[in-house]
Amino acid sequence: MTASIAEPISTQSLDAGPFSGVRVLRPETCKMFKGLHSLLHVQVADDEDGLGLYRAVHAVRAFPVSSPNEYIVLKYPDEIGIDQEVGLIMDISEFPAAAQELIHESLMAQYFEYSITRIYGVTWKFHLLFFDVETTQGRLEFQMRWQVDRAQDYGDHSKVLLDVSDNRYVIQDIRELPKADREKYLRYIYW
Amino acid sequence: MSAPTILAATATIPSEIYTRLSQAHIRVDDVLIAVEGDLDDLGRIEPIWLIVTESSVSSIPLSAEQPVSGPYSMESIEDFRIRNSVGSASLQVVLEGLPVDLVRFTNRHRERFQRVLTQMKRLREGTGFQPDLLQKQDPRFCDSCGLILPAVGSPCPRCVNQGAIFWRTFRLLSGYGSWAVALFALMLVGIAFDLLPPYLTRILVDDVLTSRDHTDWLPWLVLSLAGAAMLRSVVNIFVARLSSLIGTRITTDVRQQLFAKLEQMSIDYYDRMEVGRLMNRCIADVEALQGFVNQLAQGFLINILMIGSIGVMLFYLDAQLAMYVLIPVPFVVGGTVYFYKRIYPRYYKLSDTQSKLSSTINSTLSGIRLVKAFAQEAREAERFTKTNNDLRDSRRHVDMSVGTFSPIMAYVFGLGGLIIWFVGGQNVLSDRITLGTLMAFLGYLGMFYGPLSSLTQFSNWLTSFMTASQRVFEILDVDPGIHDNPDAKPMNRIEGEIEFSEVSFGYDPYNPVIHEVSFKINPGEMIGIVGRSGSGKSTLINLLCRFYDVQEGGVKIDGHDVRDIRRQDIRRHIGLVLQEPFLFRASITDNIAYGRPDAKLEDIINAAKAANAHDFIMRQPAGYDTILGEQGAGLSGGERQRVSIARALLCDPAILILDEATSSVDTESEQQIQDALAILCKNRTTIAIAHRLSTLRDSDRILVIDNGRLAEEGSHHELMDYEGIYHRLVRIQTQLTSLEL
After folding, report:
1. Is the pTM value of this prediction over 0.95?
2. Cβ contacts (< 8 Å) between B43 and chain A: which residues?
3. How far apart are the first and last CA of chain B?
4. Which of B39, B356, B707 sits opposite A148 (nearest CB)?
5. What's the CA gap between B738 and B741, in Å, rounded?
6. How many domains does chain A have?
7. Could you give the CA distance from residue B515 to residue B81 in angstroms, rounded to a whole number?
8. Residues A144, A162: contact at Cβ < 8 Å?
9. The complex's ipTM?
10. CA–CA gap between residue B265 and residue B153 (Å, rounded)
11. Given the DSSP bridges, would you call strands B701-706 and B526-530 parallel, antiparallel or unpaired?
12. For chain A, which residues lie within 8 Å of any Cβ of chain B, measuring from their own Cβ?
């Protein structure tokens, strides 16, 4: 799959304010496509680093909670496998549909979270919470340590629960859970 | 060919995978490893199998609709690696310099794939396949039941007998056996004095007041009642004193053990635990053990004994009437079960919020200078208010629940007393029992429901006690992390040769921060280590001091692996001067002599003189006896650093480590410290980490660490000629210095 390319291609840096030094990637400055081994490739014009073509690129959200589709950083591994930055996409929607699809695919490969929609049971034993929940991936059970750092704020009314293996379970809006589910949850996750 | 090692939810490879294997021209007999991953590229839960043979790897989705990835021949693969992303990870092959995802998996399989990665690398490098290591259990989980352990090496809370916690606490009394026996004997005597008055009342009513047969007994009976009450009070005094004596000794002993254990813990443990919470365990949770003894002596044990004794007396007086006493028992049991199930979690919540409040106060007060410097008092106050309100709410929930539960239960027991009045009254009217017997019965009944009512609090006390004591025992039982090898050699003398061989390490084992670093330092050499912040410089020091153990490779001192040297010896021969010198609340003398408490005063003065500390110490009114405040308060940053250098100098270490020793002091202080360090470094192996590169110019060699790898190595001039990272860093600093000028 190849993203459509807008002409002319140029690299733009924002000179003013806090973005100074961050290379902003705009549809007209770069093209995206799947290249060798079906990896995401990004071609940047007027590239100060002189690379031009970045291979095995992946996308990372700068603000995964507050702005999941904005401020997307593209990274590539250097010759020793350390991630280096290609640049910053201000808003995915600025890009053509094909490029958007590639960015979203890359983000899906970068992030994996279960989204909890119901809480059927929470029990406490051995300093662990045993959850029985419905998620967008189906019904499942997991265990998490009953510690403050294992249930983290994830936006104003959202929480992410980290199980004993660091898998992530997001409750998008605690207020929208059914009352009985909410009570089960708040009995233990009260912070 | 032997059977493949299968790491999956099933014991065999599914038939669909076999079919696809043959389609991909992979012989089933050649499969060495078959591992099940659980995510596809787009984050959907899909079983995908990683198939490894001696000559190739491939990933095969169970669903025929998804394409097979590979097979990739071992010759074409440059490397294998695991890439961690958010909530999942991927095993990648490096082909033509590019990392290609082979199989993706959720975090629950990270340990499994980490082991597979190691074996795949061995297969590719031809260093031998180790199928046994693939089957190794994840040490974070219990081997028997699979439950996550509180920490690696800790006992499994599910497999440990829960009653054992109670008995373990009980066994703490064994050290005070004779006192405990005396306490128990006093409790029994006290109960005997409690049982006497109702029985005397029965005689008083039946033989003196009603029948008037023995009116002359009246003063003696009253005197006996007064004597029993007085003796009961005397026994109470001794019981209270003895239980306090035992309780305080037990808590002191346990606190001592706890502190000793905390000192043994590896640095890794403190990375995971908040100091405020540990303080809470040492102070508040240990105090719960004192409560245990008090409860035994004056609470639940005595109540249980009292109920048993009174039960005997009730059945002795009138067995039929005594049966009515049992009516409330089902309510007691039901109430206790309810209490345990519904109110228990609220106690833990209360305990947790107390810890959080403690942590909040600790962190704010520890960083009070920073708070004030950034004028964030209001924000900290808001943070405190939130935690304080949480504690208020938690306490209120507990108090309200208990406050509602207890009166209801007391009312139920009161109804039991009315039943006795009604049935017993009828028996008196029908002359089946005497009035004195009923009065004695009611007297015992009053004493029976009192302890029984307080027993409804038993679950309340037991749960809070169990929670606290489990938290204490959890620390006592946890593996300290780093052990001395039983065959560790004592090393009374160290020459100072250091060797890192292919060392890899990560604070999180899945995210290495040091990658295959190798270098050798000769005795007496001065080595500088430079690199960007977070490049892994201080981690190398942590590994040399054995604050952590390497995950791959080895660190040697004088040709011996540090794991084979007693930690005590390693640290005795290493002097550490840190960026932020830690000084204790003690005299300057004690701070300098911290590593050598038996040092002569003239040695201390010599060390201070060599560290350029003597002059400012002598300007203090109390000289070397000046008591420093918390973390050396009362001295400037440069003065604190010079005291810490004197401390290192006094120990005369074979290896000296300077970790940014001059980076947080002013230029004048830096010069004085540099002069002191020049003396300190003489004739000993010195490793200096510094951002200010001018301080490392005269090093014999400089190691440049970049992203956890040894990027460059050589003298200042060699590295400048090489024009690599070091050259770039020097150029930047030179430009900055000229700008400052």
Report:
1. no
2. 108-109, 111-112
3. 74
4. B356
5. 5
6. 2
7. 12
8. yes
9. 0.87
10. 12
11. parallel
12. 36-37, 39, 55-56, 64, 77, 79-82, 105, 108-113, 124-128, 137-138, 143, 145-146, 148, 163-168, 187-188, 190-191
Residue B614 lies in a domain: no
**How does strand B79-84 pair with strand A168-171?**
unpaired
Angle at Cα B647 formed by Cα B646 and Cα B651, nearest 5°? Answer: 110
Lookup result for tokens 């589709």: A69
Tokens of B205: 């009513």
Tell me which residue range forms the domain holding A63. 12-110
Check A79 against B97: CB less than 8 A apart.
yes
Q: Which helix (H) or strand (E) holds B104?
A: strand B98-106
Tell me the H-state helices in B135-217. Answer: 162-171, 177-203
Domain boundary among the residues A73, A93, A110 is at: A110
Cβ(B707)–Cβ(B725) below 8 Å:
no
Tokens coding B493 = 């003398």
Q: Determine phi and psi for B77, rounding to 5 degrees.
A: -90, 125
Which segments of chain B have a pLDDT < 70? 1-2, 9-10, 151-155, 160-162, 268, 271-277, 297-298, 332-333, 336-337, 340-341, 344-345, 449-450, 452-464, 467, 479-482, 509-510, 630-631, 663-670, 736-741
pLDDT digits (tens, 9 = 90+) for B333-346: 677 667 766 776 67
Taking the C-alpha atoms of residue B208 and residue B227, their distance in angstroms, rounded to an integer, is 19
Domain range for residue B34? 5-134
Q: At which residue do the structure tokens 């109540």 appear?
A: B303
pLDDT tens across B126-139, in order?
A: 877 888 877 777 87
Task: Identify residue B527 by its one-letter amino acid code.
Answer: I
- Same structural domain, A69 and A143: no
